[in-house]
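hey so i finaly got around to running the thing on tRNA U-34 5-methylaminomethyl-2-thiouridine biosynthesis protein from Massilia psychrophila. pasting the sequence first so u can double check i didnt mess up the copy paste, my clipboard has been acting weird all day
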Amino acid sequence: MDLLPYWRDRERFVVFDADWGDGAAFSAWVEAWRGDPRRPARLHVIAIARGELPGFRRMLPPLQRDPAITLDLLHAPVEAALAQLEARFDAVHLHGLNNAGSGFARALARLLAKNAVLHADRLSAQQTAALAATGWVFDGAQSARYASRKPFAPIAPAPQRRAIVLGAGLAGAAACQRLCARGWDVTLVERHPQAAMEASGNLAGITMPLLSKDDNIASRLSRAAYLFALDYWHRLGGVGEAIEGARCGVLLVAKDAAHAGLQRAIAGARTLPPWYAEWFDSEAAAARYGTLAPHGAWLFPQGGWIRPASACQAMLDACGPGLERRFGVGSVGLERSGDEWRVVDAAGAIIAQAPTVIVANGAGASQLAQAAFLPLTRVRGQVTHLDADASDLPPNLGLVLCREAYLTPAFGGVRSAGASYDDDDDPALRMSSQQQNLDKLRSMLGNPAIGIDAPLRGRVGVRSVAPDRLPLVGALPDPAFPIGAERLRELPRQGGLYALLGYASRGLTWAPLAAELLAARLEGEPLPLETGLADALDPGRFQLRRRRGQSRPA
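ok and heres what it spat out for the 3d tokens, dont ask me to read them lol
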């Protein structure tokens, strides 16, 4: 399919390919894009692919090559994928649809831009008729133009690409990088003198996906975020190279025979590729890991640990000249001024001003009047630092060990264990939380002698946790909740104010994809997630739940 006559001088051009195959069509379009001086500023290709794991997967190019090209691979049947997609197609390449029926035509029509073009190969007469019924006018058997008279939604004006990001932890640094990659000018505002001094300041954070027997929303979101993060950290220079850490694998140990039975049921419910997750029953686990996993264990071979501050630094370094950093500003507030927001310090002086503000300061969001209504809980987490050479610890297998607690491989002479979940935000280390961590570690490792005389060493951070343990990604709703709203799109929002919050203890997994999702929304791009999953992260979801609860008859 030759796209050159259609994409020239466009700001963005979106192509849908019904069959990724070996990627040959994508490669050809990329080469044509590179060679065309009148190419669109951004090329976005969305393709149906046969994958081992279901769901949408966004692929980003290396930073130094073609940053204006984005590829989404949709691992789902064509009709189901189109039904969960938010995009506008300028061109459509239909092939490989021999067994697809014709129901996809209606789902496709919902996603078409005005005057979209189509190239078809080996469509059945029924499929061609279904496409014609939705507004395609064919010129021969293989090409068509979309000529429907339906009202098209007006094209949103290009955003003013100026934003303020509050918070220089994982959430804020990822937001800066994904916006700067799209040409935005971003001012990063941080109350501390440097990045990653709150919850993102721990020596080690763990990366691994969640699993469930029914592949629920949390598991699907976790899978999408985890896979995107694996690619993203590699794109920024690699874990163990530009980013301190190791993709050493995570061993999630079954607690007892009953827990092992639940994990076996998950393993039996679906076939997971071993590069993603592999279940070892008690015999196999004992043969491979000895006494560390007597009841069985999951191995996540691509998981591992990362020092969050090094990830933050890599993201901020990748922003280039579009980023302005304002550190050490102390506590701040937000004020609306015409069509823009002002960030002001404790004395009322203006620190920064822009039409868009992204609240990404974790537990600190509760101090902002515009975000204080969000149902986020501040949860204290204390990590215990243990001497890497302690004789009571198991040998360093190079894996992260997990159950109720985790134990990392050695880094800088320290192995990190934790972290506690405490219902307060006391920043001081305390012995009770240390004992909580050590008790969990003793139980996991079956060694009551671990850390008996361990000195009180570690770090305290405060997490931001939502009631459903999912992040908040998107436009902040107006706290003056309207009684009549029943859908997310009906909720009034605080114009220009967005959230990246509630990552709990999984910031290294959530931060990259959450920032990508928000940046795509701000730009009016195709979303990197199924609409149902994106909606599950909307900050307005709690207002709707409260409204629905109030509307039930007594």
